[in-house]
Structure formats: structure tokens, C-alpha cells
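Hey all, quick one. A colleague (J.T.) asked me to put the iron/sulfur cluster job into the tracker so the inputs and the C-alpha cells live in one place instead of scattered across chat threads. No bug as far as I know, just bookkeeping. Sequence used:
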Amino acid sequence: MIIHLAREAGFCFGVERAIDMVQAARDRHPHRPIDILNEIVHNRHVIDDFARQDVQSVHSVEESRDGIFVISAHGVSPEIVKQANGRGLEVLDVTCPLVTKIHRTADRLVRRGYEVLLLGDEGHDEVEGVLGVAPEHIHRIRHPDEAATLPDWDQVALVSQTTQGMSEFDQMERALKQRFPHLEVHNTICHATEQRQEAIAELAALAEAVVVVGSANSANARRLRDIASEMGRPAWLIEDERGLDPAWVAGRAVVGVSAGASTPDKLIRGVLARLEEWGGTLTPLPGQDLGRIRPELALAGPSQQEC
Ligand code: SF4
């Protein structure tokens, strides 16, 4: 059995940055309470690793201990920041800059008189944060059918949660343009999401089955699983190697592995190792450098090639 790993899989820069910032705060203040609103990133292992260092997840500003209050990579509404400041908490904002960019874009559009439609998942932290920028003028939308039910607004703009699917965004744009021909469009799906979606499409074209490593509440990881399924491949989303089932890969010649943007490399390694125990051979895609995950499979650097 050949195992291929998607060319882009695992931590994106926004997640790495958020984790590094919280870890740096813990290292600087080993005894100070540090609480994170909701989840720093949507990955159980990352949250548990921080909990072992007494960095706790809380669900509201009121619940937070007096100390450092962390705003996660998904961002929050301005109202939450106001509440935390009002309580005198020291706020550490690790919102991904690409999420902050959506807040700024939506705010600018609303000030110019637009009603802003946000393509996003109900209840997702990032979506709630963007809606909170201007609750009266930013509206969540999920299905192209909803376009027909919207009021007759004069100026309408479309933005997206960073981790939506590229094809869903295109479909939404087409549907809304039928309703609002002068729709202003800002595709705010982030580059890391786009790259991981392209990479799993390449993988699913080669593999007979696909495993995505990530937490069930990670929007981008779920999307990766869905893309592989839509391409007709059996696909599963698992937290770590304990979620693997030998029956999924039995008799398969090629199995693909990918991972969400909030999945640590150690979990990807664990899944690859388990598949290898079951007879798989990790094999690079053409031109792929697997050195980050497996140093022994790193492509030779220029100096070695010269030798
Ligand atoms: Fe930032 Fe994109 Fe990563 Fe979200 S998925 S943290 S928006 S880089």
C-alpha cells in the first residue's frame, strides 16, 4: 500500500503564530493565570497541551480568572474586547491577521453604507466575531438559495469566513449576482485554506481512500474531508491515529493522508506510523519534500546535489 501525504497539510502560519504567542506568555509569566476565550485553535491536543500548563479555556469574560485573557486565532467581536478591558484584564490578542483583515473590510464596507453578507458556518467563533463588528449590517449566509429571500438592499457586499470552500464561495457569488448585479465581492478565504483544498483535490485524484487528521469542530479540516468525499473517495476525519480503522485501508493500493490547519505535526506522524505498521509505505508525490514530517525523506539540498 502506498501512502501519500497532501503537499499542504497541518499548521498554517496563523495557528503557529497563535500557539507561539500564548506559549511565550506562559514562559514569561509562569505563575500568572492565563485563560483563553473558547479554543485557541480547534484542536483537542493543542488545548490539552496548554491545559497541562494551566492555560485554561473559558466561555466568557466573566468566567476568566484575573490575569491574562487571550483572544483566540479566530478573533472576537469588539464587544468582547470592551468587556475584557472593562474588567481590567490584560488582553493578549492572537487573532490571525487574516481574520483581522475581514473585520476591517466588513467595518469599512458598513461605514460606506453596504449591507455585508458573510458566507460562514453557524456558531463558528470566527463568524460570530465578524458578525459582532456591526450586528445590524453584517448577515451570515450559508446557502445560495437564501439569495432570493434577502431584502431589496441598494448596496450589498460579500465576504467569507477564511476557511470556506472555494467552490461554495463561487456558487454563492453567482447566486447573489443574480439578485444584486452590483454586488461587491471580497473573497477573504485565506491562502492556507485554498492551498490545502487544492492539495487534497490532487491527493483524492490519486488515492482510493483519504484520511484527514483534525478535530471534528475544525471547519477547515471538515471541508478537506468533504472535498475528498465529493470527489467520490471514501474519506474520514479523525482526531489522531487511535481513530483509524484497519478496514478502511485493507486491500487499497493507494491511501491519502491530509490534515487541517490546526493539526500538529506529531498527530500527522502518528497516523502515518500506524498506516506503515499496517504495511503502508510513505511515498513522496512528484517533487514533494517530506522533510518536515520525515527528515529521512527530505529532498537533497543544492549542496548535496552538487556532491
Ligand atoms: Fe489564519 Fe487561515 Fe490559518 Fe485561519 S486558516 S489561522 S485565517 S492562516
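Adding what we noticed when we looked at it: The domain at 2-11+193-295 is CATH 3.40.1010.20 (Cobalt-precorrin-4 Transmethylase; domain 1). The longest strand covers residues 254-259.
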